[in-house]
Amino acid sequence: MNTESTYPIDLITSYFAGEATSDDLVFLAGWLKADPKHREFFTSYRKTWSSLEKERIESRIDIDHEWCELNKKIDLTPVIKLTPNTVDSGWKDLRFFSFRSLRYAALIILLIIPAFFIFRNMIGPHTSKITAGVAMLESKLPDGTSVTLNTGSAIEYSSRFNKHERDVNLNGEAYFEVTHDKSRPFIISAGKVRIKVLGTSFYVNTDALNGKMEVVLTNGQVAVYYDDNLPEKVILAPGEKADISIDKHGIIKAVNDDPNYLSWKTRKLIFINDRLDEITGTLNKVYHTQIRIANPALSQCRLTATFDNQSIESVLNVLSATLNMKISQNGAWTEISGKGCN
């Protein structure tokens, strides 16, 4: 995270103004613990805020009046000729004006800094982004919703999240366990597709094969629709899925018959008389490997087995022993070879 998402200025401003809610305080506490740079920025901003408040309370300066008075003094000041007899008095006047100038410069700077942050708040909400790098990432959103992101996936949400709305943008593969809140539906956006829920658990993949998206509901209820066609929304019940065609602008509801749709998260694999080409496809997705079948005749070999949090090496050893195949490394690829199955 960086720039806008790293420094939630509006939330910090609300905190110093005494307007932060309990949810804001929880989120801010987590943000401060996440990175020493966050605490450094918070401390620096607190000093600026405190200085401004102190100046307001102690001086209550009328800037316009003070500016006019300064101009009068400048206009009435005679030109000083620097003779040996006047050097000392001229130096005193110079120090006087330098001192006053520095005071006004400091005051202007003190006012500009908070004004800059206020301006940033006025131009619109900031965006926070959570990205999973080379490993799966589990995180919590400000409303308590749990989200698990698969490798390379990311979500973004506005700083207004959990205040007036609960909208997120998803790119990739994720599993959500949404905190129930009837007054503020949770809406996921992925291009023109929208997924609307109140409180439930479900899986979303915006990068499914052949230009498709996929939504699988674990429990609760979700509505899937295009942003320009809400009346044609598709309602899913637990155990159902929605296959979404990006190009054809269509949504098809069906029963989810894939027991491994969450294997990337749970690391539990279930194969029931599945073909080897289907098995290798699942393994590549779950373990982020590059496995290919050297002999096409092997594709039709079938396997029934269950793997629970086992390494890819262990899984391949079981395949090799069960189906009488050979596993070898060929550059970046892991190849499965053999005679095939009867």
What does this structure look like?
There is one protein chain. The protein is of the alpha+beta class. It folds into 3 domains: 120 residues; 129 residues, Jelly Rolls; 75 residues, Phage tail protein beta-alpha-beta fold, CATH 3.55.50.30. The chain is 37% helix and 32% strand. It is built from 9 helices and 19 strands. The strands form 4 sheets. Strands 1-4-5-7-8-11-12 form a 7-stranded mixed β-sheet. α3 crosses α4 and α4 packs across α6. The longest helix has 36 residues. The chain is elongated, with a radius of gyration of 32 Å.
Provide the fold topology:
Blueprint (H helix, E strand, L loop, with lengths): L2 H4 L2 H8 L5 H13 L1 H23 L4 H14 L10 H36 L4 E5 L5 E4 L5 E4 L4 E5 L7 E6 L1 E5 L8 E5 L2 E5 L3 E8 L3 E8 L2 E5 L2 E8 L3 E6 L4 E6 L7 H4 L1 E8 H12 L3 E3 L8 E7 L3 H12 L2 E5 L2 E5 L5
Parallel strand pairs: 5-7, 16-19
Antiparallel strand pairs: 1-4, 2-3, 3-6, 4-5, 6-9, 7-8, 8-11, 9-10, 10-13, 11-12, 13-14, 15-17, 18-19
Helix pairs in contact: 3-4, 4-6
Poorly predicted regions: 1-5, 56-61, 76-83
Find the structural class using helix and strand composition.
alpha+beta
User: What's the helix count?
Assistant: 9
**At the third CATH level, what is the topology name of the largest domain?**
Jelly Rolls
| Silhouette | elongated
Strand order in space, largest sheet: 1-4-5-7-8-11-12
Cα separation of the termini = 54 Å
Summed over residues and divided by their number, the pLDDT gives a mean of: 79
Describe the biggest sheet? Answer: 7 strands, mixed
Q: Into how many domains do the coordinates divide?
A: 3
| Percent of residues in beta strands | 25-35%
**Number of strand segments:** 19
Q: According to CATH, what is the class of the largest domain?
A: Mainly Beta
Radius of gyration, CA atoms, in whole angstroms: 32 Å
Can you tell me the CATH architecture of the largest domain? Answer: Sandwich
Helix content: 25-40%
Order of helices and strands: HHHHHHEEEEEEEEEEEEEEHEHEEHEE
